[in-house]
């Protein structure tokens, strides 16, 4: 199965072996995904007396949330809902009706983290009607939109919303629209053989305790699913951009945009629309972690490099927290990806004439032509507002990112009008329509 070299494969397996031994994990699986395929798999420990394989099931926990989010985004793309819609528009009669779909997806609704029930991860769940009846205004911990506050309850609500809009259950909608099209037939709501048993490992002795497993019912969208390394590798490829027609690349990119951060100004961890985000070692990762009694799992994709990485383990706690980033480092060290070959591409002469130096007042900017007929406008030397633009049918250009995302660029031979800001070939060119008056440079 390995599609990496022997040296890299040995180093990857050793890192997994160290994690399993030193963190005392009953069984541990890990995989690396490259260009949409599982490039390496490793397993340590025992499941039913044998080494775990890529077909061994583990519980996904909150990785379930990212899959439910895809169903919600499909509903948005079809026009069945808008992310700015209040919940009341689609799920009337709850005290949460003023919260928006986007706030629930991004954990910025202010809703409580856990449901007003018994410890939901360790006890049988309650029906959706019962859960919604228990969730009142007292479950709002923060002003909606104020801050990131992780909410399992929020995804229970989103699962109910998706099921109602589809006229079925969230699980059946997820199976039909996401899991089956991606070939993830090893992903199920309850365990099937071969599967790992969930264990808690004693903190001071080498003994284990079997953890409970139940149907979470209404809380299922927050963490019900079981899956395999094989299926989770397919999910990593999906997150990296191989969507298989399940979701448009633009919508997936939208889900990966940071909507909230949970560790301060210089954030390393955040959340998009149903996806966790991380910045580490120069990488921008998107995926999700998962935790349920007896199980830990995490999947990350780095779309810019076409790489994904995952682990699945049957332990309640105790892992190092660096396993996946270490695996990425090992891959970079032993088998760094080669950059694609540069090749010349045809250029529209009219666009080619626009390239080069422009000025925002006295500040020089470089306008470059991108291979796909897009434009890139960025400060010379960096340190300012940079954006990419794509052509529109009416002859204008739409900003894709940065400060000018969503803004309109209008191009004339002697100036650029970027949402009222005028860029000229010379600093404050008197021949261009610069507002405010241009009287000429002087000492």
Structural notes for this entry:
The mean pLDDT is 94. The chain is an alpha+beta fold and 443 residues long. The strands form four sheets. An eight-stranded antiparallel sheet has the order 2-1-12-11-10-9-8-7, sandwiched between helices. An eight-stranded antiparallel beta barrel has the order 13-14-15-16-17-18-19-20. The chain is globular and about 80 Å long. The chain folds into two domains: 6-334, Beta-lactamase; 350-424, no CATH class. Helix 1 runs antiparallel to helix 9 (323-334), helix 2 (63-77) packs across helix 5 and helix 5 (152-166) crosses helix 6 (170-179). 23% of the residues lie in helices and 22% in strands. The protein contains ten helices and 20 strands.
How would you summarize what this structure contains?
This protein is of the alpha+beta class and 443 residues long. It has helices spanning 6-22, 63-77, 101-105, 128-134, 152-166, 170-179, 229-239, 249-255, 323-334, 349-352; strands at residues 27-34, 37-45, 58-59, 199-201, 208-210, 226-227, 260-261, 269-271, 276-280, 283-292, 295-302, 307-313, 356-360, 363-369, 375-379, 387-391, 397-399, 408-411, 415-418, 421-424.
């Amino acid at each position: 199965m390995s599609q990496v070299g022997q040296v890299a494969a040995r180093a990857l397996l050793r890192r997994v072996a160290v994690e399993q031994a030193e963190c005392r994990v009953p069984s541990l699986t890990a995989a690396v995904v490259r260009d949409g395929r599982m490039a390496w798999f490793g397993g340590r420990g025992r499941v039913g007396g044998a080494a775990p394989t890529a077909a061994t099931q583990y519980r996904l926990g909150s990785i379930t949330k990212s899959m439910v989010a895809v169903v919600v985004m499909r509903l948005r793309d079809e026009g069945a809902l808008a992310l700015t819609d209040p919940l009341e528009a689609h799920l009337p009669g709850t005290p949460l009706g003023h919260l928006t779909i986007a706030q629930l997806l991004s954990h910025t609704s202010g809703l409580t983290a856990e449901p007003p029930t018994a410890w939901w991860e360790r006890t049988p769940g309650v029906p959706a009607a019962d859960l919604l009846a228990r969730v009142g205004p007292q479950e709002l911990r923060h002003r909606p939109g104020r801050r990131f506050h992780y909410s399992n309850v929020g995804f229970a609500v989103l699962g109910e919303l998706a099921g109602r809009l589809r006229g079925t259950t969230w699980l059946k909608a997820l199976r039909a629209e996401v899991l089956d099209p991606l070939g993830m037939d090893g992903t199920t709501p309850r365990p099937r053989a071969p599967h790992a048993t969930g264990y808690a490992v004693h903190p001071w002795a080498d003994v284990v305790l079997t953890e409970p497993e139940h149907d979470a019912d209404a809380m299922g969208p927050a963490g019900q699913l079981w899956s395999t390394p094989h299926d989770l590798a397919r999910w990593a490829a999906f997150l990296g951009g191989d969507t298989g027609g399940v979701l448009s690349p633009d919508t997936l990119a939208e889900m990966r945009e940071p909507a909230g951060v949970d560790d301060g100004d210089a954030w390393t961890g955040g959340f998009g629309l149903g996806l966790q985000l991380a910045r580490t070692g120069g990488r921008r990762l998107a995926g999700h972690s998962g935790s349920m009694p007896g199980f830990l799992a995490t999947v990350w994709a780095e779309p810019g490099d076409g790489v994904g990485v995952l682990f699945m383990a049957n332990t309640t706690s105790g892992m190092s927290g660096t396993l996946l980033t270490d695996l990425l480092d090992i891959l970079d060290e032993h088998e760094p990806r080669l950059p694609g070959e540069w090749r010349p591409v045809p250029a529209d002469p009219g666009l080619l004439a626009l390239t080069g130096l422009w000025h925002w007042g006295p500040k020089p900017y470089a306008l470059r032509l991108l291979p796909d007929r897009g434009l890139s406008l960025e400060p010379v030397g960096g340190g300012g507002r940079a954006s990419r633009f794509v052509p529109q049918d009416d002859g204008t250009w739409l900003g894709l990112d940065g400060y000018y995302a969503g803004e309109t660029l209008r191009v004339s031979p002697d100036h650029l009008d970027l949402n009222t800001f005028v860029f000229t070939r010379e600093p404050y060119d008197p021949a261009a329509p610069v507002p405010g008056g241009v009287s000429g440079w002087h000492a």
